[in-house]
Amino acid sequence: MLAHLGQKYDKAIVLGLERITALMECLGNPQDRLPKTIHVAGTNGKGSTIAFLKAMCEADGLKVHAYTSPNLADFKERIVINGEKISDDYFCELLKRTDNVATKNNLLPSFFELVTAAAFLGFAESPADILLLETGLGGRLDATNIIKKPIAAVITSISLDHVAILGDSLKKISFEKAHILKRDSLGIIAKTSCPEIFTSYAAKVGAHLLFEGKDFSYEARGNKGFSYNGEDFPPPSLLGEHQYQNASLAITCARRALHLSDSAIRKGLASAVWPGRLQKLTSGALIDALPNKRWEIWIDGCHNEGAAKVVADFLPRFGDKPLFAVCGMLKSKDAHSFFRILAPFFDTVYTVPINDEHDAFSPTELADIITSVSGKTAKTMESTLSAIKQMPKETDARILICGSLYLLGEILKENH
Question: In this structure, are 229 and 95 located in the same domain?
């Protein structure tokens, strides 16, 4: 079904609200019948923030829908109905209904718009307390921005990404993100170099803002966790000090917009799950291919400059062993900036293709970029498994697989 629709509808990034508006009207405007909605935009940290919020809400006994993208191993990961990944049968039913309506009315939405419309239809038909809604790209012209009355909008960290579409400056990108703010809703904003963009737009639409550093703050406390507005919290379940910022955004939203109990917030921070973010693999085909049990494989979906800086802050704790990297990346990403930051941490980089992604760098292209920015010679490989088999076995080591969420999706499928 997905393959057929992927051929019928444009899978390229197509921004604009005209097509999704027309489609939703023909479907009866299900976006107007959604549960209380938290809309989340930003360059990095959206998925982790949603994972924290989902766990907090569920710990407080609430039923939660969620819409995120992209997926890792299974496309249905994008749509969560009452805490569970949408079923095959219901997903196919929603897609068929949405496709039939589009065809009957001579509409031609993009593939993402079609899936978003189907997801909204499912969310409207399935009772829940909260919908956690992630933007696909940007905010202003993203299909998810058809919603009118979210109770809160969360803006996570912003850095340069998708510059050809969103703009080549943080001001331009912030302008796009700011448009998910709505009248009478709460805006929770991560620390930004462009606060005036959000202040100006919030004044225009009548939204109330809470800024990190002004209205709430956090402080890392090493292995002891972090403090939020002076209150101590243990380390969250998701690794890396950057998760303290995402956790603080979630805490602020949980307290100020959702009014969750303190115990639920703490349970959610401790139990949140978000695969592919500084995740250690513990079993599977790739683990079986390692020389011994002292080797480790970690995966992270970092793919832009901001995420590279975050991972770079984490990697010094890996200094006790050689660190090999397996990397693949899409051509839409700034590979030069990415590897300028991360390459110095790696003993050797192995570049691999991302299968079924026509916009991915070839291993040779990516290796040339790595050499040009770091002076290191990267080794081209046909697959992650072949890279592991080529790694020197004289000493125990760690492997970090990174550069693309699409690559991680392949890895998780290959590993299991």
Answer: yes
Distance, CA of 380 to CA of 369 (rounded, Å): 12
Name residue 376's beta-bridge partners.
none
Using one digit for the tens of pLDDT, what is the confidence trace for 47-94? 999 999 999 999 999 999 999 999 988 999 999 999 999 999 999 999
Task: In whole angstroms, give the CA distance from residue 284 to residue 411.
Answer: 10
Instruction: Report d(CA 354, CA 153) in Å as an integer.
Output: 33
> pLDDT by residue (tens digit) across 123-149?
999 999 999 999 999 999 999 999 999
Q: DSSP letters of 139-208?
A: STT-GGGG----SEEEE-B----SHHHH-SSHHHHHHHHHTT--TT-EEEE---S-HHHHHHHHHHHT-E
Asked whether the beta carbons of 289 and 297 are under 8 A apart, the reply is no
Sequence letter at residue 333: K
CA distance 265 to 249: 12
Number of structural domains, the chain? 2
pTM of the model: 0.93
CATH number of the domain where residue 388 is located = 3.90.190.20
